[in-house]
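=== Structure Prediction Worksheet ===
Name of assembly: unnamed complex
Input type: mixed (protein and possibly other molecules)
Chain count: two
Listed entries:
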Amino acid sequence: MSKADCSSLDLTLTRIVDVPKEAVWRCWTEPALLLPWFCPQPWKTIACEIDLRPGGIFSSTMQSPEGVTMPTGVGCYLEIIPNQRLTWTNALLPHYRPSLTLEKCGSDDAGFLFTATIDLQDHKTDTGLGTRYTATVLHADAASAAKHAAMGFEAGWGAALDQMVAMIKQGI
Amino acid sequence: MSKADCSSLDLTLTRIVDVPKEAVWRCWTEPALLLPWFCPQPWKTIACEIDLRPGGIFSSTMQSPEGVTMPTGVGCYLEIIPNQRLTWTNALLPHYRPSLTLEKCGSDDAGFLFTATIDLQDHKTDTGLGTRYTATVLHADAASAAKHAAMGFEAGWGAALDQMVAMIKQGI
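=== Predicted Assembly ===
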């Protein structure tokens, strides 16, 4: 059960998963539970920083199969409703400072700005109470959304979610 | 009593004003009370939109002495602690969408990104209970802060505050 939607500005991934939303929430908000699933294999997440409050930092560092580390950028939490909604953006640094410098603006490595929200809702499945999981990513313009889609948003976020669900089923 | 401080990234204006912080808060958060003071004369603020919640819109439109209207951009509230702290940014649009498009990024009219906070604290003055008023504006880089300073941050925000205080004293 998978649904991907791409309006011109936003990317959305909606999935029904047969694990409780409280477990999904923990996997998104506890560093030790985020590391194992956050990055699709064979890449790894080797570090992350979570200061779970509005204005707090969310950042992670990936490692390639060849052992090259790659910071994935620093984000700032905006909305935190336990077991229900988590929103952060890379348009702001911690304490809400704008992230994009004039120097970097317009250069090829500027990447793209986004605001991501994970929404979790109870959802009855054949095997019990599962979760309706929706990831929504807002961009400033269609070009940024297209760039993010081309980087593999749907496959990447979907594969990471699969890894998370498998981990939860093994027991966390 | 005025103090302006400019680190390389931030601009700050601290003033002691002899009006209560609850009145200052209302002037920042009620459209009808914001219009008369928000823009240093002879410019006028002719419209503003305030959706006072995290993720809500804050925008205003100015009019030059010659009658030319000029939208001052759309911002998004981040922190709202009544009578104490108000934070918004123009790095995000309402609902936390990043504001800076790839198209605009790097162009001369990109302006600069900022996050502004108004902090209000009780402060005893000779004439009663006043307010310690601090406006802090965070930028992504020193170039943006310098651009904002050159546009007259201190004089502009100070003059607007003077207008607000005069209005409160006349009765709101």
